[in-house]
Specification:
The chain has 351 residues and is of the alpha/beta class. Helices cover 42% and strands 15% of the residues. This is Substrate-binding domain-containing protein.
């Protein structure tokens, strides 16, 4: 996947943003001197673009056996390369939890300044996260949250429930635009045993319910191309008519679309999940059942590296008045359609 410098600069930590600019403008035009009741504008983090003290960031993530997961590591590396004051120390990705724990322990023993950890299993890696924190090494926990808040300094991740809600809102609006009554709505979920899948499905049900709609048919794949194709085939065979489908994951969506094309079905529209570049390109081109995708962007990993840098330099975020990095940051699951796809192509990941 390509590096994302424009996104990193535009959307997150690097540079002065609208809030900071507004504060500066307010300070320039106000004729009222600062008082306790009317304090001067604050930008506690200072200029985050300016180089600071050198920081060594250790990074650990699972094996890149999935397009989204591969993009997480790619984004982390690309963001670190943009920062001249950062030394990036990644471990080799592994699907084995015990191996990931051992790799993190090695980084702790090497006394890196900050750790960025995307755990294969949040519960299993909680103890090693606490070990790092106890050793005075701040931990940036990405996406799969540790069991204890004592195991991390800041968490950054996606909004699985909100992802489901936004998918539902888009589907309801599109069905209304098309004048479809009594729609047959299907859901192709990810791995049902995972909390993230459960949260996405709960948000989808709640979002549809607000519009007086519900899921008519549901199958669960396992975030792979093979299971996506198999479960979509089962769904299409069981349902002679569909009006809308939400597929939780664009990687498994490759298999879903293979099943759709094999069955020759096009009477419905499909909304994807996560925001892969191939899905965005289909959306832009038109002529496909794919009409939208709901972001769960691996750009969060770029932001995690920027957060780690600021933690290592004891800086806050320049657009915020607080002197410290926030405790948690939840990314937003925007809906990407043909109308706005050009705005989001820079965060699309390879499937």
């Amino acid at each position: 996947m390509s590096a994302l410098p424009d996104h990193a600069r535009r959307r997150f930590l690097l540079g002065t943003g609208a809030l900071g600019a507004t504060a500066l403008l307010a300070g320039c035009v106000s004729n009222t001197p600062p008082t306790q009741a009317n304090p001067a504008p604050v930008a506690a983090g200072g200029d985050n673009v300016a180089p600071g003290p050198p920081v060594t960031i250790g990074f650990s993530a699972p094996a890149a056996d999935h397009g989204w997961m591969a993009a997480m590591t790619t984004n982390a590396r690309a963001q670190a390369e943009l920062l001249p004051d950062v030394t990036f120390r990644p471990t080799e990705g592994s699907a084995d939890v015990n191996q990931q724990i051992a790799q993190v322990e090695t980084l702790i023993n090497e006394k890196v300044d900050v750790l960025v950890i995307l755990p294969a299993d949040g519960k299993a890696l909680t103890a090693v996260g606490r070990k790092a924190m106890d050793a005075g090494i701040p931990v940036v926990n990405i996406d799969r949250v540790f069991d204890s808040p004592e195991a991390y300094r800041v968490w950054i991740g996606g909004d699985n429930y909100g992802m489901g809600v936004n998918a539902a809102n888009h589907i309801a609006a599109e069905l209304g635009r098309r004048g479809v009554t009594n729609p047959v709505i299907a859901e192709i979920a990810g791995t049902d045993s995972l909390p993230l899948t459960q949260e996405r499905s709960a948000g989808f049900r709640a979002g549809l319910a607000k519009h007086g709609l519900s899921v008519s048919r549901r199958v669960a794949a396992e975030f792979t191309v093979e299971t996506g194709e198999r479960q979509a085939t089962n769904l299409l065979q069981a349902a002679s008519r569909l009006d809308a489908v939400w597929n939780h994951d664009d990687d498994q969506g490759i298999g879903v679309l293979a099943a759709v094309e094999s069955a020759g079905r096009n009477e419905f529209f499909l909304v994807g999940g996560a925001g892969s570049r191939p899905m965005m390109e289909r959306i832009k081109a038109g002529g496909s059942v794919v009409q939208a995708t709901v972001l769960y962007s691996p750009s969060m990993c770029s932001s995690a590296i920027s957060l780690a840098r600021l933690l290592g330099q004891s800086r806050g975020m320049s657009d915020l008045a607080e002197h410290e990095i926030p405790r948690s940051i939840t990314t937003y699951s925007a809906v990407v359609t043909r109308d706005n796809v050009d705005q989001y192509l820079d965060v699309g990941f390879a499937s």
